[in-house]
Amino acid sequence: MPNGILESFYRLYDSNIKDQIKLTATEEWGGEYNALSNLLNWDSCLSCRFFSKAVINPFLQIEFVDTFVKVNRYSLETHVDGAVSHPTKWILYGSKDCNEWTIIDSRETQELAGYNRKKFFPIHYKGNIRCIKLVQENNTFQYLHYNNTLAIRRIDFYNTIHDITYNNKSSFLESVKISLMILTSEFN
After folding, report:
1. E strands within the chain?
2. Among the four 120, 157, 174, 179, which has the fewest Cβ within 10 Å?
3. What are the residue boundaries of the structural domains of the chain, listed by start?
């Protein structure tokens, strides 16, 4: 399976990834193992994840700062700490400007109801996207303070190589590097 867009950005930019991808979300639960920044660190510990505080419809938003992408699938990976708060119902939105949103996928499934699971889901939206927002409507653990929490270890997005397009011409070299990383990972 090829690297996703977020992982390719991480491999290319390492600690400077925050200049390329901006994450916002429902407030995190707290502690280094639950930090939002764990979603952009592919070398983080196995127990690391993003774990939100309990709110109705917790969300995660990814903004590609200088980039538009076209995605044809995405993956979600659950954390390793048992049956707590794995997504079972969510809506995925896409936007060109991070203000006007279009539903690009919605799911109600038990496929992620367990620890350390990774699943891929298709996206049939064909337009350019700058921002993607995952809004969870339900999870596997409806008990006390874990109700209405969003907990995932990884999220990533996949596309065809020629679909990565940049806002400015000076970023052409970066788009070529990312495309080559995605292509190379298909053959490893």
Report:
1. 21-25, 50-51, 59-64, 67-68, 73-77, 87-95, 102-108, 118-122, 131-139, 151-152, 154-158, 165-166
2. 120
3. 5-186
3-class state of residue 80 by DSSP = coil
Q: Please give the model's pTM, rounded to 2 decimal places.
A: 0.80
Phi, psi dihedrals of residue 28, rounded to the nearest 5°: -75, 155
CATH 3.90.370.10, domain 5-186, yes or no: no
Q: Which residues contact 78 (CB under 8 A, 6 or more apart)?
A: 86, 87, 112, 114, 115, 116, 117, 118, 151, 152, 153
Tens digits of residue pLDDT in 108-158: 988 887 778 889 999 999 888 999 999 988 775 655 555 677 778 888 999
